[in-house]
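Supplementary Methods, section 5.1.

A reviewer requested that the exact input to the structure prediction be made available. We therefore reproduce it here, unchanged from the version used in the analyses.
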Amino acid sequence: MHRDIKALFSHDKIQFRYTMADVKHIAIAGNIGAGKTTLCSKLGKHFGWEVHFETTDNNPYLSDFYLDMHRWSFNLQIFFLNNRYQQVLKILKGDKTVIQDRTIYEDAYIFAPNLHEMGLMASRDFQNYFSLFETMSSQIQPPDLLIYLRADIPTLVSHIQSRGRDYEGNMSLDYLKGLNERYENWIETYDKGKLLTLNAKEFNFKDNPEDLNKIIKMVEKELGL
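The structure derived from this sequence is encoded token-by-token as follows.
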């Protein structure tokens, strides 16, 4: 594939820098309530990227899942897996730069195994689910940049309470803690591409333009823009 590359001359050395046209897919990963959707919106608006949000409003299983996790865990995870897979296929086939709210990897390495470990997803369902994920993931490419939004439990709880979604009211602290531990383990071993880790507690990107600008500069540096 032809790449539009700008050559930057510095004394006797030539440095190559990619343009925005080379960047196709940015994704933001993070626990429930970390601030992914807000950061997606802010970065999408600044860079002119198309934003693909996580499907929640039209998710037919989400409310049922929080009322009865054991009954609906497999259905919910299959819905998310399919939705995320379709998003990535659309990104790869399209000609726009897209920033995605949550990745297909989080479904498979964090949410589904966490439910299985908690006894909320049967072993045969989890094995079936993960086999399907492996088939799907072999047909797609990882994002050009993964932004991991790290958040401690008090920050997650504060954000979840502030948005007031009824179906999240039954979420336990143990559930959030389990997810956080898996996020940290996954990020430690992530080797599929560029990674930028941000501490949600250190950046008020929602209300503070200076904090948002710091993140923008960090993203530009990672992407070589």
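Residues 113 and 126 are 7 Å apart (CA to CA). These observations are discussed further in the main text.
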